[in-house]
Amino acid sequence: MDEELTWVVRQEAGRPLKAYFYWKKKKNGQLVRSAEFTQSELEIEIERLIALGEDPTQFVRALKKLALSLRSDDADERRDRRLQVTVVLIAIFIALSLAGLLLFFPPGSR
Predict the structure, then answer these.
(1) CA nearest neighbour of 69 among 34, 37, 39
(2) CB 32 within 8 A of CB 24
């Protein structure tokens, strides 16, 4: 084959996480074609390649990385949510503490 396959998993602004594939000529590096796949599209492409008797190895590797990246994004979202809840709880605690201080020490009472 005179083509070289490379791929990368990334997320563009406002779009879902995808695997991007690029086929380039080995001699001059000229882009021959490209394709992008979401996780479900990549699963279908792997099944298609297997049915055609083609080697799906690079596609399987990209699928694994895509799945791990999605899992990592979910973990980041859960961590962000926990942080938001913690910040709200701290704000409530501070507000209640200040209210308690105002009850015990009302302004202007000496």
Answers:
(1) 39
(2) yes
d(C-alpha 21, C-alpha 63), whole Å: 12
63-80 tens-digit pLDDT: 999 888 877 666 666 666
Structure token pair of residue 94: 């501070």
Our separate counts of H helices and E strands in the chain read 2, 3
Token pair in block for residue 18: 């995808």
What is the distance between the alpha carbons of residues 19 and 35, in angstroms, rounded to a whole number? 8
Report the sign of the C-alpha dihedral through residues 63, 56, 41, 23, in that order.
positive
Instruction: State the helix-helix crossing angle for 57-104 and 39-51, rounded to 10 degrees.
Output: 160
Query: Which residue in this structure is represented by tokens 């000229």?
Result: 30
The amino acid that residue 77 corresponds to is E
